[in-house]
Design a protein that fits this description.
139 residues; mainly alpha; Rossmann fold; two-stranded parallel sheet; 6 helices; 53% helix; globular; Phosphotyrosine protein phosphatase I domain-containing protein; Ptyr_pPase_sf
Length: 139
């Protein structure tokens, strides 16, 4: 993780030490409850490589936006893992049930684009993640 991205993560309360990127391969993707990409292009590429992932692959902003439709998941007695599965099932059902307004869900790549762009991207991610957490935990 580059220093500017780490600074933005820390600003928003994230733990950034030890964060490393890795290639998203088949074993990793098959184990994941949900796969969130930054852009539609990344999402399409991932589903082309592994079609079985269609129902659990979204852009970050698409996933957050879709979760705002319909009732919240009320699963107080469920484990966090079970809530995440229910949340992905809800998003997949909503996406396949009706035409969700197509808007630009891409989050731009801030690499080498300066502090202001990193801040903008970090804020976009923070808004989406806050929505996801709120929906997942019925906050």
């Amino acid at each position: 993780m580059d220093a500017t991205a780490a600074r933005e993560g820390l600003r928003l309360g994230a733990q950034t030490s030890g964060v490393k990127s890795r290639v998203l391969d088949r074993p990793i993707s098959m184990k994941a409850n949900v796969l969130l990409t930054m852009t539609r292009e990344q999402q399409i590429d991932l589903v082309k490589r592994y079609p079985v992932l269609l129902r659990r692959t979204f852009t970050v902003r698409e996933f957050a936006r879709i979760l705002s439709f319909g009732p919240k998941i009320e699963a107080e007695s469920e484990t966090i893992a079970r809530r995440s599965i229910l949340t992905v099932e809800k998003a997949s059902t909503i996406r396949s049930s009706f035409a969700v307004q197509a808007i630009d869900d891409d989050i731009p790549d801030p690499y080498c684009k300066g502090d202001a762009m990193h801040r903008h991207v970090a804020d976009m991610i923070e808004i989406a993640v806050s929505t996801m957490v709120s929906e997942m935990f019925a906050i």
